[in-house]
Design brief:
single chain, mainly alpha, Growth Hormone, Chain: A, 0% strand
Length: 510
């Protein structure tokens, strides 16, 4: 039971602001990665931990939100989540080493993960059924706007202040959300006897954590030539095996395996994995591409990233309007095609790519990402019983986050490997007898001076980086196209019958 809320608008503003901060931190840090890489003297794959640690920690924590809410009370858990998120944000900004930064991002992800599912439940309990659809749409816009503002704000803050302030930015707004929750949010009844399946939670954490460590450190340690990578791979397999066996045999498992027997939900999870894999890594790679290859200042990089947020916002609005009116397979096909086409175009970029092409490809990426998220959920959730949808939303988010973290780690590992190999291959052809170096006007590029060698090294690094970037973009195009055949296995889906169901279809997995 929940006390009758007296100030629904202020409650919505408080939980919406907290949700906004959580979603902003998915994208705002990506723009600052090149500057953070210099601060921490990190390699390209190492700095990716700043993103993947946040994603993985959030994914692991989300399924526990329901138990914490019932065990300790929703208001108390929400306020603690905001508090932990803010403390971790300060630690992220103050970190002086990559290890401290990654640890702080893990804690920030653990705290922030509870904000979305708890806010979802708070909105449903705050409004009567006839007003829930409108309220959830307003709250859900906070997540979309976070993705919209994140890159642009992050670019300007990093350029004119320092990257540390992208995390300090959370503090005043987080305190405002915390004060609003403390004053206006009613508490729920607690169930002290409620138990958490700790064995399932810990084995799942072991599997996902070991897998992520293996992917993050594999390129640096030459993969299975290292005993650390072999150990992490063994622990990942062991963790997933024990988790699956436990879920199939326990009376009240951490996640109900029967959800996977629902065909449309299982296909929805496959789309969720693809969605995370092809939409998150480009946000991490693009700032580095614009910085290393094109040489743009960080504030310009933020502006060039803004079309992705605009496209995402417009597509989410369109997706909300067509939900229940058109076959969800149509927007999914359109979205995957747009993602594949834009990634394919990006795979043909050179060092001279212009601003217009950067803008419209980012815009198409946003349109493609935004237009498929609602139909994927429209396919996945209506086939489930209402009492299973909260747990199903946790599984959906978990799979999407795993796809995103594997995509980021894999893309960075491929980038480092490809750029290293291509640097070696290109350098083999640079000698004093090369025709290009003997051409008129190429005297400054000669191998007989330190300046000439430095210029050659810079150009080889540039060309190797371009080949590596475009290879990653080509991979994203192939994965997006690979999702299209899954549409053949989807039948006609049940359409939302009310405005509330329509809103839940839009926002349940945000």
């Amino acid at each position: 039971m929940v006390d009758t809320p007296k100030h629904p608008a202020l409650i919505t503003a408080s939980v919406g602001l907290a949700s906004f901060l959580y979603s902003v931190d998915w994208t705002i840090a990506a723009v600052a990665l090149p500057h953070m890489q210099g601060t921490f003297s990190a390699s390209a794959d190492q700095i990716g931990w700043v993103i993947t640690s946040y994603i993985v920690a959030s994914a692991l924590a989300i399924p526990a939100s329901g138990w914490l809410s019932l065990r300790f009370g929703r208001k108390r858990v929400f306020m603690w989540a905001v508090t932990v998120f803010l403390i971790a944000s300060v630690a992220c900004g103050a970190a002086n080493s990559l290890e401290v930064e990654v640890f702080a991002r893990v804690v920030q992800g653990l705290g922030g993960a509870f904000l979305i599912p708890l806010s979802h439940a708070i909105i449903l309990d705050t409004y009567p059924p006839d007003q829930q659809g409108k309220a959830m749409a307003l709250w859900g816009m906070a997540s979309v706007l976070g993705s919209f503002f994140g890159p642009t704000v992050g670019g300007f803050v990093t350029e004119y202040m320092t990257w540390r302030y992208i995390f300090y930015f959370n503090v005043p707004f987080g305190l405002l959300a915390l004060a609003g929750a403390a004053v206006f949010l009613p508490e729920t009844q607690r169930d002290p006897t409620r138990r958490l399946d700790w064995f399932g939670f810990l084995t799942l954490s072991l599997g996902i954590g070991s897998l992520q460590l293996m992917l993050d450190r594999g390129g640096q340690l030459d993969w299975f030539e290292s005993w650390e990578i072999i150990t992490e791979a063994f622990l990942a397999v062991l963790g997933f095996y024990m988790f699956n066996v436990h879920c199939l045999t326990a009376k009240q498992p951490f996640l109900d395996p029967r959800l996977l027997f629902k065909r449309t939900f299982f296909i929805g999870l496959m789309f969720a994995f693809i969605y995370g894999f092809v939409t998150t890594p480009p946000m991490v790679l693009m700032p580095s591409f614009l910085d290393q290859v094109r040489g743009y200042p960080i504030d310009t990089i933020g502006i060039l990233q803004a079309p992705r947020g605009i496209g995402l916002f417009l597509a989410m609005v369109i997706g909300g309007r067509i939900t229940g009116r058109v076959d969800p397979r149509i927007p999914i096909a359109i979205g995957l095609t747009l993602l594949a086409f834009s990634s394919w175009d990006m795979s043909n970029w050179t060092a001279d790519v212009g601003e217009w092409e950067l803008l419209w490809t980012n815009f198409l990426q946003g349109i493609g990402a935004g237009i498929i998220l609602v139909p994927i959920q429209e396919i996945a959730f209506p086939s489930l019983e209402p009492h299973r949808r909260t747990e199903a939303a946790a599984v959906f988010n978990l799979v999407r986050s795993i796809g995103a973290s594997i995509g980021v780690s894999g893309a960075l590992a491929i980038f480092v490997r490809t750029s290293t190999v291509m640097h070696a291959q290109l350098a083999e052809h640079v000698t004093q007898y090369s025709r290009a170096l003997q051409a008129p006007g190429a005297e400054a590029w000669g191998t007989g001076s330190v300046r000439g060698l430095a210029m050659l090294e810079r150009e080889i690094n540039l060309q190797a980086a371009i080949i590596a970037f475009t290879g990653d973009f080509w991979l994203f195009a192939l994965v997006a196209l690979g999702g299209l055949p899954l549409l053949l296995f989807i039948g006609r889906t049940a359409r939302p019958r009310s405005k509330t169901e329509k809103a839940e279809a839009m926002m349940i997995a945000e």
